[in-house]
Known about the structure:
171 residues, three-stranded mixed β-sheet, elongated, alpha+beta, 18% strand
Amino acid sequence: MYDIERVKKEFIEILEKTGTKYADEPIRVNSRLTSTLGRVCYKPHYRGERVIVDRVEFSKQLLDTSTDKSIRDVIEHEACHFIATKRSGTNHGHDAYFKSICAEIGCTNNKTTTKVERTVEVKKIFKYTVICDTCNEQVGHYMRRCGVVNDPSHYFCNKCKEHNLRVVQNF
């Protein structure tokens, strides 16, 4: 089982093996990452300036549900992005330079793309559920405020055709 301290320890060990300096950039767990397993975030920069790493984030779902091997692969993958940026001062995405760093540290990689075993269930988290009080039917799920969430009295249930909807917040 991985926690953020173990993730930080392994991430920093990878950097040290390659001689990359770790300047205490935050390494965090982000519970909002559902389709992205990890990411390196950059500070805004002006054209021609070096890119600066702001923070590194890992998905809470990844840490909670994935195998140790999958988590280790994601840590290595994000470390490769971090190293590429630190060495060159630019964001390389998944280009040849990034892949050369993957090869250097032994990160999972094939000739065209970096592969990570995917075991995280992609689950949408809805903020609002609309329910019909007449027939007890769930009318819809919404991630953002919209017409039916803002004023349900203007809408009707698709099943019983009544204007008796209420909004429940799912926090």
